[in-house]
UniProtKB/TrEMBL annotation:
Name of the protein in question: DUF1214 domain-containing protein
All copies of domain DUF1214, residue ranges: 340-449
Domain DUF1254 residue range list: 66-195
Top-level taxon in the UniProt lineage: Bacteria
Lineage, highest ranks first: Bacteria, Bacillati, Actinomycetota, Actinomycetes, Kitasatosporales
Origin species: Streptomyces fuscus
InterPro entries, per database record: DUF1214, DUF1214_C_sf, DUF1254, DUF1254_sf
Pfam families hit by this protein: DUF1214, DUF1254
Amino acid sequence: MDTDHATVPGPLTGTSMSDAYVTSLGRLAYLWGWPLVNMHNRLRLTARFPAPGLLAGVVPGGPSGTLGMLHDYVRPEQRIVACPNQDVVYGFGLLAAEAGPSVLQVPDFRDRFWVIQLVDQRTDAFARMGSMYGTKPGHYLIAPKEWDGEVPPGIEEVLRYDTRVGAVIPRVFMDDTDEDRAAVLPFVERISMYPLAEFDGSLKRVDWTSAPTFAPPAEAAAATGGRGGETAWVDPDHFFDQLGTVMTEVPPRPGEEALYAWFRSLLTAAEADPALREALRRIARDADAELVAPLFQFRNIGQPSAHGWTTHRNGASFGTDYLSRTALAKANMFVNPPEETAYYHQDLDAAGDRLHGANTYTVTFTADGIPPVRGFWSLTLYDEHHFFHPNEPEHFSVGTKNKNLHFEEDGSLVITVGGDRPTRPELLPNWLPTPDAEFSLYLRAYWPDKTVLDQAWTPPAVHRL
């Protein structure tokens, strides 16, 4: 028997494809490629920044290969990334391989918790930096995999990514006090990223409190403008027009070659058949509504935990777990790896009913049930779009950052969710106001204890009063 013949990479050109086959393969390609196309389209943001700064004063960023930093908590108006938290000072920058290498400057954070997320176009981490890793301060070179230039003296390490697009997202913990807002600034102003050509070995300082603010063009206003959901980074009508380019930007991992060839066979057939191209648009619209949209609801994703909470254990290290990769990209883009952050999501109360602002709830942490972390923890309330619900006291989350929480005599911590504003002043910090609509709760445990990672600790139930 002849065993030397090459394996055919997908269907031969010209192979007949039934409607059912095209529909099935097209839906699979949409689910698989949604996060990659999402990242591809986010690169449009860099064109809105003449220099590192803020769009409309709320969205940090800069040209490709640079980043911008906030100097306070993220504002409720931003809409570029769902599920932000109000425990850290954020930064954000996008990498583009064609822009070449960049230098990331990391200050000495001393005993302050910090983490800088570096993810490729797959939303997988290509490097790990933060308190839990003992990362040294200094200058780090972030370079495309194929870059073969000279590394100058003074670079601590070269970090490489193999896709066209990447993201760099600093997070620096800050207490919700005026004193800590001032104390965090010397650390934040020493975080920067810039092209390798600008590196001179010095420690640069940027006063992010006076960073330039740029007015967003009309088409970018949704990223900065208040109500509604996250900016629509994936358009089903153009998905299959972009997919071929995106697969070139994101090389297959070992074992994915056949999958790539399979999807390309569909694109090749569509190039020669206008009716098939139109069918793929319809398939993408249906897949967006029927496959991807339901993944926005936390109760539909991840792994079940206690009391109706769900969690996930492979954030930013999805590999071939394409379901989780797309689910997290839809519900909460840019999650950290589990050793950096454990996440718990909740849409339901203890009876299994949908959380709604018409009701009042309590979440009670016993004295020995406070989330065990070496970093910080927080319980955040999100509206139906996974953003903050604007309210007069600006209470969006509670946790380590709050220095005035009220604990009961037995040491327990009772968080009231919804209902009327507490009349007792000492209970006001423990109150999370709700919209008059469905909402979700979200618990983060940064630098979690082993008991969290092993799920020996789980969040308490959400009880409706």
